Amino acid sequence: MGPLSPARTLRLWGPRSLGVALGVFMTIGFALQLLGGPFQRRLPGLQLRQPSAPSLRPALPSCPPRQRLVFLKTHKSGSSSVLSLLHRYGDQHGLRFALPARYQFGYPKL
């Protein structure tokens, strides 16, 4: 017995039965997505670390803070998001920005 064609399946089950079955499977799928936390399999090598207790001595910076940063904005690479993050960071920390007088830096004038 070969695979059932869509027309034969529709004749066997009927449109109402197929609709009910589709609704049941979609409900199960959505429930598993919403409540999927307990059903997810964890990889044995991937363990989440618990945050350790903070030490009493102050944490030393691992590298000196940067004083100058150059960011070149490019097209279609997520640079607008990075630019807004840099602006927000600079505004919070009182940094100054060097922006072009016109829209683009050094674009050839034809």
Keywords:
110 residues, mainly alpha, 38% helix, elongated, P-loop_NTPase, galactosylceramide sulfotransferase activity
Beta content? under 5%
Overall form: elongated
Give me the number of helical elements.
3
Gap from first CA to last CA = 72 Å
The helix content, as a percent range, equals 25-40%
Rg from C-alpha positions? 29 Å
- Order of SSEs, N→C? HHH
Which structural category fits the helices and strands?
mainly alpha
What number is the mean pLDDT?
A: 73
- E-strand count: 0
Major β-sheet, in short?
none
Low-confidence stretches: none
InterPro entries: Gal-3-0_sulfotransfrase (IPR009729), P-loop_NTPase (IPR027417)
Transmembrane segments: 20-39
Protein name: Galactose-3-O-sulfotransferase 4
Family: Belongs to the galactose-3-O-sulfotransferase family.
